[in-house]
Amino acid sequence: MRAFLTGLMLAGITVGAQAQAQTIDDPQANVVEALVVSAKLPGPAWWRVSDGDTTIYVMGMPSMLPKGQAWDKTVLERRLDGAFALLTPPVWQAGLTDIPAMLRLRGSLKDDGAWTARAPALAARTQHAWTAVDKNDDGWRKWKPLFVALQLNGKANKQAQLQMSEPDRTIEKLARERRVKARPAAVHKAMPMLKSLVRENSEAAGLTCLSETLDAVEAGSAPARAAADAWAQGRVKDALAAPRSAERCELLLPGVSDLKRQLVDDEVEGLTDLLRTPGHAVAIFPLRALVAEGGVLDKLRAKGITVRTPGDG
To answer: Within 10 A of 13 (CB to CB), how many other CB atoms are there?
Structure first.
């Protein structure tokens, strides 16, 4: 559901024609160098958030992992033992009654393909990339550029066996085995958010997104795999080098930058709430959101809450 809603949000909303000339408002473009520290312990990097009687172990998460990616889970398993909660990122909820509206939104993304004549070089690159990942090599021509980018990104990731569901699924499975209850930092209804973002269908924004997506697809899966290896080994700086083309596409959409800031606030509030319970807990949040300027850990430190880095062990 998370992947579906993220994709639908990316596919269904566009910005004004001036998008190509605009600077992307990226709330997580810069990181706090003091927080970007490689891990001393085996496996992925952990940060610790604590007060007098509570410690929360926070793991920074990649956006996806290659299928079969090995990573050391011993520290995770040890910290889940006896934990009173597993805090996960905010979620978007959609019910069965929302499906017709989502399908109508998807239907609005159909296109006559006229944009290919206005951007022939981009169309040629799209044809080449699409043919490599889909047997229906003309299937992209009936969609608007933004949705073409979304589909192409998803198909390329699938072919490269890059999984959005990991490592989240493994972590939540290990938590269930230890009877640690997982709960999201916040729950938002999906449809009001989607409807509030709908503005106007802009070809310019779609072409910008498609160009960035093609850059990433043409570069192949090696950068994503290298970042995943770095994450698994606790090398935070190298893990942060993961491709961000899909995220940059999202940031072209109206309101998404503010939405990302809201999600950080949700995560800060969730961690602050956990500190009210004595004992220890585990949290898993996106890596860049944790260490960004104005990110989760930066805001917690500003509140006077103690934050220790992976270099502290």
So the answer is: 25
Condensed to tens digits (0 to 9), the pLDDT of residues 174-220 reads 999 999 999 999 998 776 666 655 454 567 778 888 998 999 999 99
Structure tokens at 74: 């011993």
Q: Are residues 228 and 69 in contact, defined by beta-carbon separation less than 8 angstroms?
A: yes
- Residue 74 phi/psi, 5-degree rounding, is -65, -40
Cα atoms in the 13 Å half-sphere on the side-chain side of 224: 26
Q: Quick one: DSSP state of residue 68?
A: T
Q: Is the pTM of this model over 0.70?
A: yes
- Alpha-carbon distance of 273 to 134, in angstroms, equals 46
Q: Which tokens belong to 160? A: 């490269």
Tokens linked to 133: 């990942």
CB 274 within 8 Å of CB 53: no
ω before 167 within 30° of 0 (cis)?
Answer: yes
